[in-house]
Amino acid sequence: KSANPQWREQFDFHYFSDRKDILDIEVWRKDNKKHEELLGTCHVDITALPAKQTNCLELPLEKHPGSLLMLIAVAPCTGVSISDLCVCPLGDPNERQQISQRYCIKNSFRDIKDIGFLQVKVLKAVDLMAADFSGKSDPFCVLELGNDMLQTHTVYKNLNPEWNKVFTFPIKDIHDVLEVTVFDEDGDKPPDFLGKVAIPLLSV
């Protein structure tokens, strides 16, 4: 019930060179659980923003009244990566030793915000639901930790996909939950949900 909402939320998007350069933003209004209405959209060209500084932007909503006030910073990606199984960070003994030393007890207070990092190996899925008329699916896997999100490539026409990828996330809150969701890619349409698992970090 506000025409001037304040969210004060921070989201981290991991921007890789092979991704698109436009940040798409949508503002929605929700009446109840069933009814939602689009209040406007705006777009930010990431390549046009100065790097290594916080940019304050007031973005008018396209074809709708109102604007969004946002702080956007483009900075080098630290602690986040996607790699193959053969080159995962903890697989290298030297790198594993450096990581162990970085998070040993005597270094606990060197950087209070640097709690640690999570390494996840996404190997495969088994017996997924068929989402296509052909009796197959085009599955990909999305990993979310806090407001961080990474995803695998799509394996086409397969109910038993193998991704064999390693993902690393910096941990900002030990009470966060790792959510792993499998979707079916559906062309230009929104992906179909195939299943989900939630893993609290405290259980690892």
Automatic annotation (TrEMBL):
- Which compartments does it reside in? Membrane
Choose one Gene Ontology CC annotation of this protein and give it.
synaptic vesicle membrane
- Domain (C2): residue spans on this chain: 1-59, 93-204
* Single GO MF descriptor: calcium ion binding
Which Gene3D superfamilies does its entry note?
Answer: C2 domain
Record keywords, A-Z: Calcium, Membrane, Metal-binding, Repeat, Transmembrane, Transmembrane helix
The keyword Disulfide bond is assigned to this record:
no
User: Which GO BP terms apply?
Assistant: regulation of neurotransmitter secretion
Main subcellular location of this protein, as a coarse class: membrane
Q: How does the protein associate with the membrane? A: Multi-pass membrane protein
Family per UniProt? Belongs to the MCTP family.
Q: What is this protein called?
A: MCTP2 protein
Q: What is the organism of origin for this protein?
A: Leiothrix lutea (Red-billed leiothrix)
